[in-house]
Sequence to fold (62 residues):
Amino acid sequence: MKRIAVTTESKFIKLLCRKCKNEQVTFSKASSVVKCLNCEEVLVVPTGGKAEMKGKKIQTLT
Ligand SMILES: [Zn+2]
Fold:
């Protein structure tokens, strides 16, 4: 967990995998594809600055 740079917009979000209903916490500005740890469904796709959420957002953690 040491790759995260500190910025004012840094957030962690909790996503629900649409495929297996696994809940997973991830960084809102992920710079690489985030996959579900359970079924490998893609949950977050980086799109040049702002990550696109593929999973269902449940909660924002601050
Ligand atoms: Zn899944």
